[in-house]
Write a structure and sequence with these properties.
The complex is a heterodimer of chains A (110) and B (117).
Chain A lengths: L4 E3 L2 E5 L4 E6 L7 E6 L6 E6 L5 E4 L2 E5 L5 E6 L8 E8 L5 E3 L3 E6 L1
Parallel strand pairs in A: 2-11
Antiparallel strand pairs in A: 1-3, 3-8, 4-5, 4-9, 6-7, 7-8, 9-10, 9-11
Chain B lengths: L4 E3 L2 E4 L5 E6 L6 E7 L6 E7 L2 E4 L8 E5 L5 E5 L8 E8 L11 E2 L3 E5 L1
Parallel strand pairs in B: 2-11
Antiparallel strand pairs in B: 1-3, 3-8, 4-5, 4-9, 5-6, 7-8, 9-10, 9-11
The chains are: A mainly beta (110), B mainly beta (117).
Amino acid sequence: GQQVMQIPQYQHVQEGEDFTTYCNSSTTLSNIQWYKQRPGGHPVFLIQLVKSGEVKKQKRLTFQFGEAKKNSSLHITATQTTDVGTYFCAVTSSNYKLTFGKGTLLTVNP
Amino acid sequence: GAGVSQSPSNKVTEKGKDVELRCDPISGHTALYWYRQSLGQGLEFLIYFQGNSAPDKSGLPSDRFSAERTGGSVSTLTIQRTQQEDSAVYLCASSRRTGGAGNSPLHFGNGTRLTVT
């Protein structure tokens, strides 16, 4: 099945620093989704990328899809304590199964 | 409208007992997924339904696990003869459709926290 590697597993930053998490696949992806899970909560959809080289922004969050559609990144500018949580990427298999990366846990020191 | 509803929110059971977890998806959502999340871990895919059929059951850990969906709506995940390693949060998610250039987003329920003693 479709596999995706997500790095880093953990990231601790000082408030105001930037943060980036990466997802990499050995095969070409049809699309990629990003989710955020707050501590004690459930995953919440952030965005979906479909096109090669696509870049989308949501306030301080920037999402990129690689030109070869094999990798993606989520970048947060000037982190805030509200950004704390685990960020997951998710990719679709040929049978439409959605497989999640292992996630990056972000902690922010105020 | 209402989101994805899961019940019970918490379940404590003795090893060897059967448990049934319920998921009510968002009305009109044809796709339904079950995932399992152990403490501090990622989301482990269990099973996926498109309507009432399950094209992919590959994630079910053993034959003690089964799931069904009726009327294209409610789904139940049953674990027979529970073991301590079954302890986890079981998350259900639904989406409007699958396929095409991109999938619809998954909407997750709050999960059922299962503890097997």
